[in-house]
Design brief:
Layout lengths: L1 E5 L4 H12 L3 E6 L12 E6 L7 H14 L4 E4 L3 H7 L1 H4 L4 E2 L4 H8 L1 H10 L8 E3 L2 H10 L3 E5 L9 E2 L21 E5 L5 E9 L2 E14 L3 E7 L3 H14 L3 E10 L2 E8 L11 H9 L6 E2 L5 E3 L1 H8 L7 H10 L11 H10 L10 H9 L14 H17 L5
Parallel strand pairs: 1-2, 1-4, 2-3, 4-5, 11-15
Antiparallel strand pairs: 6-9, 7-8, 7-9, 10-11, 10-13, 11-12, 12-16, 13-14
Helix pairs in contact: 1-9, 5-6, 5-14, 10-11
C-alpha cells in the first residue's frame, strides 16, 4: 500500500515511517519544513515539504491532494493535529485517497477537554469532578473549591502549562499568570493521587485493532514522557472500547488515565498518535492501521523504549547521584531514535530542536513548541469548513460557557 505520513517531525511519526516501511508498505512523508527528521528515513520512497496546516490550511490541503494524485497514495496517516485540517477537507480528499482519521466533529469533541469530560459523564465513564472556568474570577473561585487542585487549558498538549499546588509540578505556574476566557477556558479538578497511565489504539469503525497501555517511568520536567514501559492493556482497553464504539470512531486515538485507589479515571483524549506507537512492533502497528478487519493485537506488559536524545539532555540537568542510572538506561535500554541502519533522522532531530527561535534544552515548553509549531488546532474555525462543522464549533463554545462554574 502507498502511504503518506504527515507531520513527520514527531518521534512517533519517525516510528510510523520505519514500521510501516519494514512491514512492506511504500511510505512517503511530509512536513512544513525540510528538516523534519521523519522525512529523511531510509524507509521512505519520497518526502515532501507542504504548506503549514495551521497557517495556510487551504494550501496544505491542496498540497496533500496533489501529492496523493501524483503518487497514487492510498492512505494518509496524520501524526499530529493536522488531522483536524485534513478532516475538514474529508469529502474533497476522499476523491483521491483515504485519510485515516475520524470526522472533524468527532475529533473536536474529543480534543476539547471540556467537551470530552461531558462525553464521559454522559456515558457513565469515570472522570474526576470538573469545573470549567472562563474568567480570572471563575478560576479563583474554582481553585478555592479544592484544597488540592490540578488545572489545565481546554486546548493544550504535551504536558505544558499545568497549574497545581500538589506534587512535583506544584508552583511551576502561578495562578496569576493564568487568564481563562470563554473561547480559551481552563478545567479545574481535585488532584487525583495515583500513577498516570496512557493508551494508544488504532481503530476502524468503532473496533479496536491494536492497543497499547503504558506508563512513563522517566519524564521531562515531570510532564512529558521520555521513557515508556507497557503495562497490562486490559483495564484501559475496556474503557477505550466503550468510547470508540459509542462514536463509531476511525483513526488513531490516545487517552490519559490516573490509576486512582478506586480504579482508573479518564483525564483527557488525544485523537491522534502518541508515544504508545513506539512500543508496538512493526506488524502490530501496520496491521492495526491498514487492515480494518484484522484481529485485535495488544502489546504485552514489560516492553521498554526511550528517546535517547531527550534522556541524554535531561541527564546533564539532574542531580549528580541520578546520572549513573540515566547513563545505564542509555546503554542498556532500547531507543526509539537509535539505529545503525537509519541514522539520518537522528541528525535531523538536533536540527529540529533548533527550528523554533525559543528552543533551549532547558526550556521544556520551548522544546515542545518547536515540535508542535504550526501543526496545532485550538478550537478556531478552519477556512473551508462546512456549515455543519462551523455550527458544531459554536455549539461547543456555548456548552463551555454554560458549564463555567458548574461541575462536570
Amino acid at each position: 500500500m502507498n502511504i503518506l505520513v504527515t507531520s513527520s517531525r514527531t518521534p512517533f511519526a519517525i516510528d510510523l515511517v520505519r514500521k510501516l516501511g519494514r512491514a512492506g508498505h511504500e511510505v512517503y512523508a511530509a512536513d512544513s519544513y525540510v528538516a523534519a527528521p521523519g522525512s529523511h528515513s531510509r524507509y521512505l520512497c519520497g518526502h515532501f515539504t507542504f504548506a503549514s496546516a495551521q497557517d495556510e490550511p487551504e494550501r496544505f490541503v491542496a498540497d496533500v491532494e496533489r501529492t496523493c494524485r501524483e503518487h497514487a497514495i492510498e492512505l494518509v496517516v496524520p501524526a499530529f493535529e493536522e488531522a483536524f485540517y485534513l478532516a475538514v477537507a474529508h469529502e474533497r480528499l476522499a476523491a483521491v485517497t483515504r485519510v485515516y482519521t475520524a470526522p472533524f466533529a468527532t475529533l473536536a469533541r474529543l480534543h476539547d477537554k471540556s467537551s470530552f469530560q461531558r462525553l464521559c459523564v454522559e456515558n457513565g465513564l469515570p472522570v474526576p469532578e470538573t469545573v470549567v472556568v472562563g474568567s480570572d474570577e471563575e478560576l479563583h473561585t474554582a481553585l478555592g473549591r479544592f484544597p488540592r487542585y490540578f488545572a489545565r487549558a481546554a486546548f493544550s498538549r504535551g504536558g505544558i502549562s499545568l497549574l497545581t499546588n500538589t506534587g512535583p509540578l506544584a508552583g511551576r505556574l502561578d495562578p496569576g499568570d493564568v487568564h481563562p476566557s470563554e473561547t480559551s477556558p481552563w478545567l479545574v479538578q481535585p488532584f487525583v493521587d495515583g500513577p498516570m497511565n496512557c493508551s494508544y489504539s488504532t481503530v476502524h469503525d468503532g473496533r479496536v485493532t491494536a492497543h497499547c497501555a503504558y506508563r512513563a517511568p522517566r519524564q521531562w520536567e515531570h510532564s512529558t514522557g521520555i521513557q515508556f514501559e507497557s503495562v497490562d492493556p486490559e483495564p484501559t482497553l475496556a474503557l477505550v472500547r466503550r468510547i470508540v464504539e459509542r462514536l463509531g470512531y476511525t483513526g488513531q486515538v490516545s487517552f490519559d488515565f490516573v490509576a486512582a485507589a478506586d480504579g482508573l479515571k479518564l483525564i483527557e483524549c488525544n485523537p491522534r498518535p502518541t508515544d504508545g506507537v513506539l512500543l508496538m512492533d512493526d506488524e502490530q502497528l501496520a496491521r492495526g492501521i491498514t487492515a480494518p478487519q484484522s484481529e485485535l493485537s495488544v502489546v504485552e506488559p514489560g516492553r521498554v523504549v526511550q528517546l535517547d536524545w531527550a534522556l541524554l539532555a535531561q541527564a546533564f540537568d539532574e542531580p549528580l547521584h541520578e546520572m549513573p542510572g540515566s547513563f545505564h538506561d542509555l546503554v542498556h535500554l532500547r531507543s526509539a531514535d537509535r539505529g545503525w541502519n537509519d541514522l539520518v533522522p537522528q541528525l535531523y532531530s538536533f536540527l529540529a530542536l533548533c527550528h523554533h527561535e525559543r528552543i533551549s534544552l532547558k526550556e521544556h515548553e520551548g522544546l515542545f513548541a518547536a515540535m508542535s509549531d504550526d501543526i496545532c488546532w485550538d478550537g478556531a474555525p478552519i477556512p473551508g469548513m462546512s456549515a455543519q462543522d462551523a455550527a458544531l464549533l459554536s455549539a461547543l463554545e456555548s456548552e463551555r460557557a454554560g458549564t463555567a462554574t458548574g461541575s462536570g
